[in-house]
Amino acid sequence: MPMTPERWSQTSSYAQEVFGVEPPHIRANRAMADAAGLPTWAITGEIGRFLALLAGATSGQLALEIGTLGGYSTLWLLEGLGPRGRVITIESVDTHADFAEAEFNRHGVADRIELRRGLACEVLPAIAKEVGPESVDVVFIDADKESYPEYYDATADLVASGGFLVIDNIFGTSTNWIDDLSDPGSAATDRMNRKAVEDDRFDTTGLFVRAGMLVARRR
């Protein structure tokens, strides 16, 4: 039975309905972000549950996120890490960072989330120096695609043994897809995908869910 646009849409809705059930505070965050007019490119609920599942399979100490937006994926990461865990998240847009910080305070988790403002490529060296190599249980990257190779290089060595490096949109976005490498974002994502698969520090796969996710587990 061929995949049609209608079937794709219905299946995506089904996945969100069945596997994307959100805890009340995370559902409230999404609703507030929608009401505030934030961009709608945040992950969906079933992807959030997947992130939480991966985080829960680690020692649950520290996650690093590139691309906070309204804090939706940040809250999912924290949910998976458990009560001892904390998240460092990076956001370059002040209006997004302001919203996310207010949300973290509203939900009583601001003491466990450190939001760093600025361009990730400029912020990451200081974070790497602070936390040290092989110290992060989960790295989640969902930011500008043209910088994906640089983000990979800057974070791969931070992942702890048994930890995960997870990258969203490895097959495309709403504006570009991996079959068009004339697009700078697609070309950069392709370079990163191929780099990751060849990196012998990790066991790596690409999942064809939503717009694709790279999942790499540190050996």
Span from first to last CA?
39 Å
Kindly estimate the percentage of residues that lie in beta strands according to DSSP. Answer: 15-25%
How many domains, as an integer? Answer: 1
Round the Cα radius of gyration to an integer and report it: 17 Å
Q: What is the top-level CATH class?
A: Alpha Beta
Helical run tally? 8
Please name the CATH architecture: 3-Layer(aba) Sandwich
Number of strands: 7
Largest sheet: 7 strands, mixed
Q: How does the overall form come out from the CA principal axes?
A: globular
Order of helices and strands: HHHEHEHEHEHEHEE
Q: Explain this structure to me?
A:
- The chain is an alpha/beta fold and 219 residues long.
- The protein has one domain (5-218): Vaccinia Virus protein VP39 (Rossmann fold), CATH 3.40.50.
- Helix content is 44%, strand content 20%.
- It contains 8 helices and 7 strands.
- A 7-stranded mixed beta sheet has the order 3-2-1-4-5-7-6, with helices on both faces.
- Helix 3 runs parallel beside helix 4, helix 6 (120-131) packs parallel to helix 7 and helix 7 packs parallel to helix 8.
- The longest helix is centred in the first third of the chain and has 15 residues, at 5-19.
- The mean pLDDT is 95.
Q: Helices, strands, pairings?
A:
Layout: H1 5-19, H2 24-36, H3 45-56, E1 62-66, H4 72-81, E2 86-91, H5 94-106, E3 113-117, H6 120-131, E4 136-141, H7 148-155, E5 159-168, H8 184-197, E6 202-207, E7 213-218
Parallel strand pairs: 1-2, 1-4, 2-3, 4-5
Antiparallel strand pairs: 5-7, 6-7
Helix pairs in contact: 3-4, 6-7, 7-8
